[in-house]
Amino acid sequence: MDILILLLALFVLSLFLGVELITKVPPTLHTPLMSGTNAVSGITLVGALLAAGNDGSPMMVNVLGFIAVTLATINVVGGYLVTNRMLAMFKRK
Amino acid sequence: MNENLVNFIYLISGVLFILGIKGLTKPKTAVRGNMLSALGMLIAVVVTLLNMNTIDYTYVVAGVVAGSIVGSIMALRIQMTSMPQMVALLNGFGGGASLTIALAEYYTKLGATPASFAELLTPVVADSGAFGPGPEGTIALIAIGITVLIGALTLTGSLVAFAKLQELMKKSYGLPGGPVGNALFVIAALVAVALVVVNPGNVAAMVAVVLLALLLGLFLVMPIGGADMPVVIALLNSYSGIAAAFAGFILGNTVLIIAGSLVGTSGLILTRIMCVAMNRSLANVLFGKMAAGGETVDADEVYAGKVTSAQPDEIAMLLENAQRVVIVPGYGMAMAQAQHAVRELADAIEAKGAEVQYGIHPVAGRMPGHMNVLLAEAEVPYDNLVEMDAINPTFEDTDVVIVIGANDVTNPMARDVEGSPIYGMPILNVDKAKTVVVIKRSLSPGFAGLPNPLFAMDHTLMVYGDGKKAVVDMTTALNQL
């Protein structure tokens, strides 16, 4: 139970931090913000790796893990690349 | 590896994600922020792999290779006008990843995976003890159920959003009963989650959660029209983050919780900004009909005999003598791929000595910031892109406003006509300018289905035709003056 409370505290504090941070992002960068956060949500790759690579798990778990790894990697690679591509276009006078 | 060390390194990843988003608060630091965020991701992945005891690389490598290829192709080939579609897909994949992780964790802890379809529907004996001691087991099961629910509905909802944006699905279909029908689906799914929590071996209930949530995603997004997509995409963006955070609770993984909640709040804040910019509640966007209520206005009455049209070369003469010009782009500019042509027109106007700025309404386009990215692609400096609240007071000192592909966000009825369905929606006050030039194919109404009195005003000139061609013709004419 101790761990759960700590995780909950982390969750709630991150939500507040998120509000503080995101409200400071200017509207002109809202599209890169969305694709960038898509990339960040690809952090599920960490969980996916555990499911896909765990030797000794039933095959069904590995297959589900494989699907998760593929989808999360698309998010990570696609998200960061496209965000970078967009941000590189934003120029001053 | 030492578990504490692993968690410490996850913390570093979390900090890098935070710094990454902080970088996005200024265009100047944004590229570096994105790199920091990517570095955080790399560290988290490497540590996870190093920390795994027995590892079978077959599925890991196959998944990473397949995902990298698909992701790179999407990211490098997507056109900027199609960014909403790309983000919709990424939202969906994020939801799908959380869904499959939760299912994998469910079957791992259950210790039994079904060998056949019949077995899939037969409950096996299991208690929540397999998922953790005492209340921890129950909480783990609830987290799994919620992750599956949100993940699955994000997956199908995003695929529908993609289909709508790509115009593969043009009609709107809804569940009979609208919000009531959807509520029944939500309740049924929650009941199924409860059944899983009571008896984790009830695999059929878990299958029911998946199916109900997949259907719910379809039914939630199918009735929503194209112009409301900015809200839907932002909301699904939030869901994909929340699903990731809940997956973090299942796995007891700190970095998933940090990253997931940042994404979740980001999506929610964008959703709120979009709703405020349309003066509508989230419930109204999801379940309401835009034009419901309010007195109907006859388009013929508004337009009859009052609309003045003009040719591009006449507009060029106007522009030659202007001191200040504001360009107001909308989704029509994206549709016509006219962003480069617009930039060239702005260059030509500036060459004649006028100041040019762009007025950007928050819901212009199909996602938050859509117009800004398109204009950035056309190499318009971002200082020239001005937000609604900042540009509105300047319209009175503006000689010419060029509206291209925008309609409802310039409709003065939203400001002046109480009882109009769009009354109260903040608009760009383009009608305050000395002359308004509207480039449009016809007088057809925008998404709200309302006539726009702006088009009939004495100082408004309509230029009919394809947006890109009209802009190019103006530029050519202006350069010859």
UniProtKB/TrEMBL annotation, chain A:
Membrane topology type: Multi-pass membrane protein
Keyword NAD: yes
Enzyme class: translocase
UniProt subcellular location: Cell inner membrane
Stored InterPro entries: NADP_transhyd_a_C (IPR024605)
Principal location listed in the UniProt entry: membrane
Signal sequence range: none
TM segment ranges: 63-83
Domain annotation NAD(P) transhydrogenase alpha subunit C-terminal: ranges: 8-92
Keywords: Cell inner membrane, Cell membrane, Membrane, NAD, NADP, Translocase, Transmembrane, Transmembrane helix
Catalytic activity: NAD(+) + NADPH + H(+)(in) = NADH + NADP(+) + H(+)(out)
EC number: 7.1.1.1
Functional summary from the UniProt entry: The transhydrogenation between NADH and NADP is coupled to respiration and ATP hydrolysis and functions as a proton pump across the membrane.
Protein name as annotated: proton-translocating NAD(P)(+) transhydrogenase
